[in-house]
C-alpha cells in the first residue's frame, strides 16, 4: 500500500535483514518508513516511556510556557506531550533535522484529534533557540549529538527552563564495569532476538550505529545535567542499558 496523506503506512523493519555494505546509520526515508516498528522492537522500554511522557508533562507543564520535543522523529513523544498539556496558551514545538521523518510526523500530528497546535521545525537541535520552557523532551536523541556539543545544548535548555520546569532525557547508556556492560548488552540483544531480529540484523545494525550513537554512563549524564543548571536528577525508568531521567530545575 502506498502511503496516503491521511494514513502514512508504516512497514516492518527488514532494513538489515540481507547483507549490505557497512555504512553509518542515517535517518533517511527508508528508516522513516519502518521507524515505529524499528524503535519498538529495538529499544527496551520505549512503549512504556512514551505514555509516561504524557504523565510527566501533565505534572510539570506551566501555563503560557513552551514545550519542546527535540529529535521528535514521527512525533510519538510530541503527541504524548500534547495530550499532557492542559493549558491552551502553551506552545508545543517538535524539532528534527530529518526531512523524511518530519514529513511523516506532520501526517501523524494531523491525524491526532487534539486542539493544541504543534509547530514542527526541520533543524539541527544544536541551532534551536529555546525560551520560556517548562517541559523539554530528548527521547533517545542526545545519544546522536556529537559529544563536544552535548554540554552546550543542555546548558541552553536549562537556561531557558522556568523554575519548576523539567527535561525528560532518555538514553542508551554504557557502564564502567565491563561485566555489567557485557550482561546488559547481552540482555539487550536477547530482547531484539525475542522481537524477531536475526543475528545478522543485530550485528549489521550494531556496526552501522557504532560511530553514530555514542552512549555514556549514568554518572556522566548526571554530572553534566547538574553542571548545566538542573538541580535534581532522577532516574525514573531503566530497562537493561536504556534509561529515562528527569532533570528538574528547582522552583
Ligand atoms: C520518539 N524522540 O519517538 N538535530 C535534530 N534532530 C536530530 C539530530 C540533530 N542534530 N540528530 C538526530 N536527530 C523520538 C525518537 S530517534 C531515536 C528519537 C532512535 C533525530 C533523528 O533524525 C531521529 O529522528 C531522532 O533524532 C532520534 O520518541 O532512533 O533511536
Write a concise keyword list for the protein shown above.
251 residues; alpha/beta; Rossmann fold; 7-stranded mixed beta sheet; 7 strands; 20% strand; globular; binds ligand GEK
Commentary on this structure:
By secondary structure, the chain is an alpha/beta fold. Helix content is 41%, strand content 20%. It has a single domain (29-248), classed as Rossmann fold (3-Layer(aba) Sandwich), CATH 3.40.50. A seven-stranded mixed beta sheet has the order 3-2-1-4-5-7-6. Strand 6 (232-239) and strand 7 form a beta hairpin. Helix 1 packs across helix 4 (99-111), helix 2 packs parallel to helix 3 and helix 5 crosses helix 8 (218-228). It binds ligand GEK. Ligand GEK is lined by residues 27, 39, 50, 71-73, 76-77, 95-98, 101, 124-126, 139-141, 144-145.
Number of domains: 1
Structural class: alpha/beta
Number of helices: 8
Q: Briefly, what CATH class?
A: Alpha Beta
**In percent terms, what proportion of residues is strand?**
15-25%
Sheet with the most strands? 7 strands, mixed
List the helices and strands and how they pair.
Elements lengths: L28 H14 L3 H15 L5 E5 L5 H9 L6 E6 L2 H13 L6 E5 L10 E7 L7 H14 E12 L5 H17 L4 H11 L8 H11 L3 E8 L2 E7 L3
Parallel strand pairs: 1-2, 1-4, 2-3, 4-5
Antiparallel strand pairs: 5-7, 6-7
Bound molecules: ligand GEK.
Give the structure's gist in a few sentences:
This protein is of the alpha/beta class. The protein has eight helices and seven strands. The longest helix has 17 residues, at 178-194.
Amino acid at each position: 500500500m502506498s502511503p496516503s496523506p491521511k494514513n502514512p503506512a508504516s512497514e516492518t523493519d527488514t532494513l538489515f535483514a540481507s547483507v549490505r555494505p557497512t555504512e553509518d546509520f542515517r535517518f533517511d526515508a527508508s528508516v522513516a518508513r519502518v521507524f515505529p516498528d524499528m524503535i519498538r522492537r529495538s529499544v527496551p522500554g520505549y512503549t512504556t516511556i512514551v505514555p509516561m511522557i504524557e504523565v510527566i508533562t501533565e505534572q510539570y507543564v506551566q501555563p503560557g510556557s513552551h514545550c519542546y520535543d527535540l529529535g521528535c522523529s514521527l512525533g510519538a513523544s510530541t503527541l504524548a506531550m500534547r495530550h499532557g498539556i492542559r493549558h491552551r496558551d502553551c506552545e508545543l514545538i517538535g524539532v528534527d533535522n530529518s526531512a523524511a521523518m518530519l514529513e511523516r510526523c506532520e501526517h501523524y500530528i494531523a491525524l491526532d484529534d487534539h486542539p493544541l497546535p504543534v509547530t514542527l521545525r526541520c533543524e539541527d537541535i544544536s541551532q534551536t533557540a529555546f525560551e520560556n520552557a517548562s517541559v523539554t523532551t530528548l527521547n533517545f536523541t542526545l545519544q546522536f549529538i556529537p559529544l563536544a556539543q552535548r554540554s552546550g545544548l543542555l546548558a541552553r535548555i536549562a537556561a531557558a527552563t522556568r523554575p519548576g520546569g523539567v527535561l525528560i532525557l532518555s538514553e542508551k547508556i554504557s557502564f564502567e564495569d565491563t561485566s555489567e556492560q557485557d550482561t546488559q548488552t547481552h540482555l539487550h540483544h536477547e530482547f531484539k532476538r525475542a522481537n524477531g531480529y536475526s543475528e545478522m540484523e543485530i550485528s549489521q545494525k550494531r556496526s552501522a550505529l557504532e560511530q553514530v550513537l555514542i552512549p555514556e554512563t549514568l554518572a556522566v549524564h548526571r554530572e553534566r545535567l547538574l553542571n548545566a543548571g538542573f538541580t535534581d536528577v532522577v532516574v525514573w525508568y531503566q530497562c537493561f542499558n536504556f534509561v529515562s531521567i528527569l532533570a528538574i530545575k528547582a522552583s
